Amino acid sequence: MRQTTTTQYKSTSLSIKLAFPVNWVPGITIATDIICGFPGETEVDFQETLKLIREYKFPSLFINQFYPRPGTPAAKMEQVPAQVKKQRTRVLSQLFQSYTPYDSTIGEKQQVLITEESFDGQYYVAHNKFYEQVLVPKQPELLGKMIEVDIYEAGKHFMKGKPAQNGKIHTPSIVKPLLKGEVSGMTEEIKTLSKNGTALPARCTGERSFSASLFPWNVKGPRVKIVSVSLAVLAVITAVTMAIFR
Questions:
Q1: SS3 (DSSP) at 63
Q2: Helices 43-56 and 6-19 sit at what angle, rounded to 10 degrees?
Q3: pLDDT (tens digit, 9 = 90+) per residue, 121-180?
Q4: Residue 159 — φ and ψ, nearest 5°?
């Protein structure tokens, strides 16, 4: 774990838990990365790392074997033998796979959003508010819905839940979903005209008349003043230029 000791790690972890009390962020998750075989790592250091993992049972743990990058200070340090690094990495991986971090959730009720089908096609995949994966029964009417589930089983990277009895089901959407083939942004007037086969007025299509496009001064209002001022300025510039080059 580089130069960070387990004592320092525990102190940092405790600070995080104190900064985010359980009633603020219940179920807060702490993940970590471990570089296995960093230069100077002793067997005692490695055993301390194993002890830390057993204590915290990280649900997310990234194990990397140290590789010396040329030109870095660590590359010049005394290296841990390659075979030792491989063996320690294997032990760490086995320890990580030996526990299931979600056992404590069995029996809980959780709100989940069902988003997709699982890779094996046997379940729908949902996520709770911590973005932890919850597998639920494949009931087509639940896809895209937010429901309450009872957690009845836990695996290494997931939980399994079933819809709670009398649980509310709702669609997490701000506006009513569009019907199939419906185009967003259409007013009721445009919908009615389109349905009746009536040509849409220029203000609905964004088109301008031919005369207005070619001759903007034909349009009444402020645009006439802008064009007049522009022509006057152009005339002055032309006159001055001709006077200079005579």
A1: strand
A2: 20
A3: 999 999 998 889 999 999 999 999 999 999 999 999 899 999 999 888 888 765 666 676
A4: -125, 160
